[in-house]
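Entry 14. Structure prediction run on the chain below.
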Amino acid sequence: MLVAFTSVVIRPTGTAALWGKVQEVRDAITDFKQSGKPIIAFMEYGGEQEFYLASACDKVFLLPTASLDLTGIASYELFLRGKALGYDLKEIQEATRMLEKSVELDPDYAPAWYALSLAYSRQAHYTEGGRGSLERSDTACNGC
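Output returned:
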């Protein structure tokens, strides 16, 4: 007997899976969408991984009493963008701004504190940031 699906409903839950596994499931969702059949996400809670999976669906339903906790995604994006910038004055200033925002959004994210410390150090060595930037570098590294 052949079973045909007319649609799929997913319920992403907080499994704390590795991001690679979450990406595999998201890829499967996008593959299913190519069939033209609807795929719907129903969320009772919305964390980073749950929302990332749900964002691949055609529709997302969230309980009215549920919350979305997405600060980590925003913080992580700023962290990656800040780390990717180079050593000229404009890029160092932009990286510093992004990394400051990253640690503001997620004060517990140690890699962002470390990258911010390096950005302040770059300001001290490659621009006219001087002693003040070195002190900010030391202070930021205490958040690591």
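The chain has a mean pLDDT of 79.
Filed with the rest of this week's runs.
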